[in-house]
Amino acid sequence: MMELATAIQSALSQPELNEVLLMIENIFTESTAYAKNSHAMRHQECFALRPSTDGMMDVLRKAFLANVDDIYALADALADDAQLTVKVKENSKRGYYLQVSFFQVKFSLHSIHSFLRSTLIR
User: Fold this and answer.
1) pLDDT digit string (tens) for 34-78?
2) How far out from the chain centre does Cα 113 lie?
3) What is the pLDDT of residues 77-109, one digit of tens each?
4) Cβ proximity of 62 and 53 under 8 Å
5) How far, in Å, are 13, 110, 117, 121 from residue 91 at the CA level?
6) Three-state SS across the chain?
7) Correct CATH for 29-121 of 3.50.50.60, 1.10.1420.10, 1.10.760.10, 1.10.3720.10
8) How many alpha carbons fall within 13 Å on the CB side of residue 82?
9) Of 40, 22, 21, 39, which Cα lies nearest the Cα of 31?
10) For a designed S-S bond to 41, which of 4, 35, 68, 116 qualifies (C-beta 3.0 to 4.6 A apart)?
């Protein structure tokens, strides 16, 4: 058992590992961490690299933020127009989607149906 501990200590004390650690610290942000939530993990993956490390990643990061902003803006617009509570949800299978309470939709459909019926019967 002592031989194993000595071998591990010897392997981890190699000077090359410090160079690898410095390279990793120069590429990744300090705030990068593992997250159990798929939504949080997607954000972690997007912002793990420091800005200006990779030009393509900077472009992808901006596109990702623009898409997420558009999704939330669409949810807000729908909530205002239909007077509903709209939640933005995300999971690994469906991606981003909008969630509306069944009872709110039923109430809104009833209101629209009543309005159309009273307008058309005249």
Assistant:
1) 888 877 887 788 888 888 888 898 999 899 999 999 999 888 887
2) 37
3) 877 777 778 899 988 788 888 887 777 666 566
4) no
5) 42, 31, 39, 45
6) CHHHHHHHHHHHCCHHHHHHHHHHHHHECCCCCCCCCHHHHHHHHHCCECCCCCHHHHHHHHHHHHHHHHHHHHHHHHHHHHCCCEEEEEECCCEEEEEECHHHHHHHHHHHHHHHHHHHHC
7) 1.10.1420.10
8) 19
9) 40
10) 35
Residue with the two structure tokens 């420091």 = 50
The total number of residues shown for the chain amounts to 122
